[in-house]
Amino acid sequence: MALTLLKASKDSLTLRFALAQDGYENFVFCIAHRTQAAKLVRDMIDINTFCPKRKPLSQHGIDSEKLLVMSELSDVISFILDQKTANFLKKYERSINYIHITDHYSNDRSEDVSPMQKLAHIKRIATFSFSFPKDAEERSEFILFSLSLLDRLRRFKLARDSKQKSDKNRQRITEYIQKAAFALRQEAVQAKKEEMRRLEKEQMYKEEDPEKQRRWELKEAKREQKKSKLRVKQLRVKSM
Questions:
Q1: Care to name a GO molecular-function term for this sequence (predicted)?
Q2: Which of 3, 62, 135, 146 is geometrically suited to a Cys-Cys bond with 128, CB 3.0 to 4.6 A?
Q3: CA 17 to chain centre
């Protein structure tokens, strides 16, 4: 487990842990302050994909008006929100920005890449973000809580139904990625064909032999006719 200290000041503390791929169960989980939750759902692809629904912690027996929970699996909530965590959340409710634990973290912000393509390059990450720690002792308590929770999660095992749901969700994403990759390859092949036809067309316009031009135009007409018949056939199949 590797720790990156993303931000530390008198006003905030953000910790990011790179977790071992085979050391934890597969799930996406997040607790966030109300002011942070909507942004996380919008910006974090894994949360948006696996658990976009925000629920108040009060629905899980913790008296909190400011914190929301987003979880792919219900038994992850039950395990994480034990009495120790509940006490910590109630005590430091004002300081918690978010706690985000995921096996599908992607920090690719490129607008040229689709969300599904971004999910093809993922990491297992846990991020803990706190604001306004009063002193060094409080910052230490935030760090110790983060380490303790991750240590507990190493021993956590999903129930059979949750394991099946988790596997099914990831299989669905894998299939989407494969389909997206196939579509991109098809688009690249089609673009290459169209470029070759464009160059061929330009060459024919420069051709001085009228017979060659006539044969080429005949070939193009047959090709367009074949494409038209194929489109009609596809439309008929779709309408059945």
A1: calcium ion binding
A2: 146
A3: 18
- What residues have CB less than 8 Å from 77, skipping those under 6 apart? 29, 60, 69, 71
* CB 131, CB 12: distance < 8 Å: yes
Q: Is the pLDDT of residue 225 over 60?
A: yes
- The domain limits of the chain are 12-158, 191-235
> Which are the contacts of 238, defined by CB distance < 8 A and separation ≥ 6?
none
pLDDT digits (tens, 9 = 90+) for 85-102: 999 999 999 999 999 999
At residue 111, what are phi and psi to the nearest 5 degrees? -80, -10
- Sheet containing 96-105: order of strands: 2-8, 12-18, 123-131, 96-105, 28-33, 67-71, 55-56
Measured at the CA of 37, the angle between CA 34 and CA 41, to 5 degrees, comes to 160
Instruction: Dump pLDDT digits (tens) for 16-41.
Output: 999 988 889 999 999 999 999 999 99
* Mean pLDDT of all residues belonging to the chain: 84
> What gap in Å lies between CA 59 and CA 66, rounded to an integer?
13
pLDDT at residue 234 tops 70: no
Q: What is the pLDDT of residues 110-148, one digit of tens each?
A: 555 565 566 667 899 999 999 876 778 888 999 999 999
Strands (E) in 132-224, as ranges, are none
What is the pTM for the complete model shown?
0.74
- Give the closest residue to 55 by CA, choosing from 40, 42, 37: 37
For residue 11, the SS3 value is coil
